[in-house]
Amino acid sequence: MSCNADPLVLDFVEWVAREPRAYAEVISTWKTSCPRLTIWEDAADRGYVARETLPGVGLVIAVTEGGEKLLRTNGR
Questions:
Q1: Which domain of life is it from (predicted)?
Q2: 6, 42, 57, 73 — which has fewest CB within 10 A?
Q3: Domain map of the chain by residue range?
């Protein structure tokens, strides 16, 4: 993991780290019309967040161990 992480990816991972977020909330909050700004997809591709199904909640996005390490490495 690089200490020069994308600031928006860091912001996203930090936001998800507060609590697992419903997939619909992630899509709604982090949507963009610019195909070059794929913040949450970048975080997932890099292994910082993952999709999980929680009983009674449904599909959520949660921080992985890699995402927690990214936050610690970057002082978050």
A1: Bacteria
A2: 57
A3: 7-74
Burial class, 22, CB count within 10 angstroms (exposed 0-12 / middle 13-18 / buried 19+): middle
Per the CB < 8 A criterion, the answer to whether 26 and 54 are in contact is no
- CA pair distance 56, 70, nearest whole angstrom: 29
Q: What CATH architecture is 7-74? A: Orthogonal Bundle (1.10)
> Collapsing DSSP states into helix, strand and coil, what is residue 60?
strand
**Is the Cβ–Cβ distance between 8 and 46 less than 8 Å?**
no
Round to whole Å and give the CA distance between 4 and 70.
Answer: 10
